[in-house]
């Protein structure tokens, strides 16, 4: 099995739509099959 790349994903404004979009993207198995996601936010 090939080593998956770590991909940083920023959520943008915590009060905006970014956190929801990131959560929905991470819920997709396809995303997790392609990389190791690292979510960055404050």
Q: How would you explain this protein's 3D organization?
A:
The chain is of the alpha+beta class and 42 residues long. It has one domain (6-40). It is built from two helices and two strands. It has helices at 18-26, 29-34, and strands at residues 6-10, 36-40. Strands 1-2 form a two-stranded parallel ribbon. It is elongated, with a radius of gyration of 11 Å. The model has no long low-confidence stretch (mean pLDDT 94).
Largest sheet: 2 strands, parallel
Radius of gyration: 11 Å
| Main sheet: strand order | 1-2
Q: Residue-averaged pLDDT, rounded?
A: 94
Q: pLDDT below 50 for ≥5 consecutive residues: which ranges? A: none
Q: How are the elements arranged and paired?
A:
Blueprint: E1 6-10, H1 18-26, H2 29-34, E2 36-40
Parallel strand pairs: 1-2
Keywords for this entry:
42 residues; alpha+beta; two-stranded parallel sheet; 36% helix
Compact summary:
With 42 residues, this protein is an alpha+beta fold. It has 2 helices and 2 strands.
